[in-house]
Task: inverse folding
């Protein structure tokens, strides 16, 4: 407590001296950056979880071949859960003399509990959102159904014994079958009209879905009760199983934000290390004096520790406040990223923010502070006496450990940890080596230049160790600034390029082999060329390595639920450009031999599959066994037809098949779709413009967010620059006082300082550009899976930026040393 009182009594004086103020600023920026991104990602993650439930049209969906018991529904209502019911069954729909098979879906009032229905008043007309299900006696029919029957909105259809009016074109419903499995067109109707139609009788092939929504904790508890009953033939789905069509885009956006925040943290760490070192150097005389008057080594160290702790607490409070305010501004800027309002932020990100400040202090501030306890009392009389430096393993080990913790905490991915730590260490080593080389060269050149430049270059050579440290500080600062400006732009441009303006926005499915030529001709006549038709068959896995799906689940860690379901399969002779083989080898175009299958790597992980496993497919009653010979990573951003499982082409053409294709059609040219579905009523059109718009919106908003977070990086860079200059400010004042005492003008001194910082900035800029290029390419390819090459502008910006930013800013920041009255400085010595 004595140490605490002593520390508090001098804390204001220490802050005025400047070192603790730099430390406070660096920590505040680090905490603000961490908490601002934490608050935002916390809100977004919960919003994404809510949006993911749109695929279920609820928070919880219970599907089975019979309705859920009335007791369960009563129990759900007692827990204030909202409910809705759906019935799905196939039936033939008539319109005059025309008829077609349709997937009928009856829904109750309240459907959907999550998401929204989108309808149009005419075929391929403007889309509108509705919160009402079809009224009694009315239906919503999708475009393919209307085209097959040759009717439009306002016509009547016969469903069983009922005659119903088509009230709107059904464009989108949240729980429609993903992908291309729903080949029959949908007719949405009121559930009460289902009973009146007389179609549901004993033995009818119908599927019932009961939907629930409410507070997450209540929904989860209700789902666990249902799962505990182990109801036969019942499938229970919640948020965790629903997935999200936007997962790739949202995950990539989160990585961009985390990378931006991480850069600020690294810069703050550099500033903390330099400010702590400066603080320790400034307190050596005070520590020696305290020891002279009887203070113990422990007491001296405790006072310094209390100073750091107080600064850490104050910085945490300031940083959390700044982070919360910044998040509010950022959330307003990102309005519309996800449909609906973002949920309120929780206080969970506060702890990581405060912990970041403490980790930075321990890893980058404590090693320098440990020197104070070893200060010899004789330093009161001899200022050249220095305490022994801390062990190298302690200084660098603590810093590396702290950096690893911060990186992994910000983005918990091992590959990013290796990239950042490896890149930082390599750049630091290059900067240190370059700094030493510069010092050596300048020592030889200083006799060949004018007085001012001789003085500046002599400063670099004379303070060899400090100059090398400053090169590291400036270089790291410039590197991360370059990484987040030009490299950031390259990354974002690469991301934008993955979803070009003419990305496919329409899928055509259920194309018969005999229709391909006719459809291609129709599209080519409308100016749409190079249409690629991809074959599709329906099948299910009934054996994995000779085991049934149930046996596989018992003997492996993988899931088998996909194996028992019918799924979409395709085949190809060559690997699609939007796919990348991550394990094994893809077959050759002229493949001959036993059938092979290539599996999406995520599905393989989920099912516990690996290269070499044998899968037996039931395709239209035919059994086909294929060996897994490769795993693929699929670029879903391409919006091209892709499949979780692709087979080699051997004998596949003889199987019953349809074709699918994707194409881009401007909104102003949708007439071609109307002509197409009228000429080919069996073809279904899936409009994915809404999904494309959301992905493009996420890219746009993520770009804005990264630019906003970049302000933290700029602030951290300014703090690094100030900390580096502060570390030699006392010595500069003394040198300036001596030079001016012996007749040098203030201009000569300032020109010398400009020469010194220009030399340091030039080397720092070149090394920073090199480091930013290498790390940027690795990050783009390994972390974001985006192409990126060498940008010549990076070296130009690095060189000019080093000269101007470090040279001019350093001179302006250090000009106080040249302006200080010599008599005042000399008396202080």
Result:
């Amino acid at each position: 407590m004595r140490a605490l009182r002593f520390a508090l009594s001098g804390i204001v004086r220490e802050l005025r001296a400047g070192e603790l103020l730099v430390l406070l600023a660096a920590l505040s920026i680090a905490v603000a950056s961490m908490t601002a991104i934490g608050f935002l990602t916390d809100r977004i993650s919960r919003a994404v979880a809510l949006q993911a439930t749109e695929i279920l049209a609820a928070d919880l969906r219970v599907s089975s071949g019979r309705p859920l018991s009335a007791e369960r529904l009563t129990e759900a209502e007692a827990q204030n859960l909202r409910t809705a019911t759906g019935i799905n069954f196939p039936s033939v729909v008539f319109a005059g003399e025309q008829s077609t098979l349709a997937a009928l879906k009856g829904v109750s009032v309240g459907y959907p509990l999550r998401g929204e229905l989108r309808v149009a008043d005419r075929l391929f007309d403007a889309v509108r959102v509705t919160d009402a299900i079809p009224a009694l006696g009315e239906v919503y029919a999708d475009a393919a159904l209307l085209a097959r029957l040759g009717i439009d909105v306002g016509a009547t259809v016969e469903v069983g014994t009922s005659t119903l009016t088509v009230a709107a074109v059904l464009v989108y419903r949240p729980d429609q079958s993903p992908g291309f499995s729903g080949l029959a067109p949908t007719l949405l109707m009121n559930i009460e009209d289902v009973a009146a139609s007389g179609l549901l009788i004993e033995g009818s092939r119908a599927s019932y879905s009961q939907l629930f929504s409410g507070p997450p904790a209540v929904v989860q508890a209700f789902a666990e009760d249902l799962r505990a009953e182990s109801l036969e033939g019942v499938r229970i789905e919640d948020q965790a199983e629903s997935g999200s069509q936007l997962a790739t885009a949202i995950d990539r956006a989160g990585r961009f934000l985390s990378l931006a925040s991480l850069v600020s943290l690294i810069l703050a760490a550099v500033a903390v290390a330099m400010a702590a070192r400066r603080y320790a150097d400034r307190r050596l005389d005070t520590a020696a004096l305290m020891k002279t008057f009887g203070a113990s080594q422990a007491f001296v160290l405790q006072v310094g520790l209390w100073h750091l702790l107080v600064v850490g607490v104050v910085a945490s409070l300031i940083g959390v406040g700044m982070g919360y305010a910044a998040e509010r501004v950022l959330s307003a800027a990102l309005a519309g990223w996800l449909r609906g309002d973002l949920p309120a932020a929780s206080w969970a990100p506060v702890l990581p923010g405060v912990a970041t400040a403490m980790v930075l202090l321990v890893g980058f501030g404590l090693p320098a502070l440990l020197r104070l306890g070893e200060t010899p009392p004789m330093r009161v009389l001899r200022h050249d006496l220095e305490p022994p430096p801390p062990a190298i393993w302690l200084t660098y080990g603590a810093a590396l450990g702290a950096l690893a913790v911060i990186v992994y905490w910000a983005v918990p991915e091992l590959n990013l940890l290796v990239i950042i730590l490896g890149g930082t260490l390599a750049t630091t080593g290059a900067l240190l080596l370059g700094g030493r080389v510069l010092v050596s060269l300048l020592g030889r050149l200083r006799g060949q230049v004018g007085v001012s430049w001789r003085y500046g270059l002599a400063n670099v050579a004379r303070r060899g160790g400090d100059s090398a440290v400053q090169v590291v500080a400036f270089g790291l600062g410039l590197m991360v600034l370059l990484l987040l400006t030009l490299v950031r732009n390259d990354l974002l441009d690469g991301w934008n390029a993955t979803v070009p303006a003419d990305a496919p926005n329409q899928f055509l499915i259920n194309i018969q082999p005999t229709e391909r030529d006719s459809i291609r001709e129709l599209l080519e006549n409308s100016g749409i060329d190079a249409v690629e038709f991809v074959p599709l068959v329906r099948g299910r896995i009934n054996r994995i390595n000779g085991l049934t799906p149930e046996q596989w689940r018992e003997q492996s860690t993988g899931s088998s639920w996909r194996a028992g379901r019918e799924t979409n399969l395709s085949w190809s002779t060559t690997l699609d450009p939007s796919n990348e083989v991550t394990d094994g080898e893809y077959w050759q175009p002229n493949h001959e031999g036993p059938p092979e299958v290539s599996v999406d790597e995520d599905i393989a992980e989920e099912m516990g599959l690996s290269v070499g496993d044998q899968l037996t497919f039931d395709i239209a009653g035919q059994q086909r066994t294929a060996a897994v010979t490769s795993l693929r990573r699929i670029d879903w951003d391409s919006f091209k037809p892709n499949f979780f499982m692709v087979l080699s082409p051997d004998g596949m053409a003889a199987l019953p098949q349809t074709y699918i294709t994707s194409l881009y059609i401007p909104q102003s040219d949708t007439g071609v779709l109307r002509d197409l579905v009228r000429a080919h009523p069996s073809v279904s059109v899936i409009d994915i413009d809404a999904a494309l718009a959301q992905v493009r919106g996420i890219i746009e908003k993520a770009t804005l967010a990264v630019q906003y977070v970049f302000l933290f990086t700029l602030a951290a860079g300014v703090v690094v620059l100030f900390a580096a200059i502060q570390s030699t400010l006392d010595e500069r004042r003394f040198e300036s006082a001596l030079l001016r005492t012996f007749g040098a003008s203030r201009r000569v001194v300032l020109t010398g300082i400009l020469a010194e910082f220009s030399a340091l900035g030039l080397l720092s800029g070149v090394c920073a550009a090199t480091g930013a290029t290498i790390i940027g390419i690795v990050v783009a390819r390994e972390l974001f899976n985006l192409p990126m090459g060498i940008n010549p502008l990076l070296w130009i910006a690095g060189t000019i930026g080093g000269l101007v930013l470090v040279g001019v800013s350093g001179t302006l920041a250090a000009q106080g040393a040249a302006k200080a009255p010599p008599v005042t400085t000399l008396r202080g010595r």
In short: The chain has 25 helices and 21 strands. The CA atoms of residues 579 and 634 lie 5 Å apart. The longest strand covers residues 82-95.
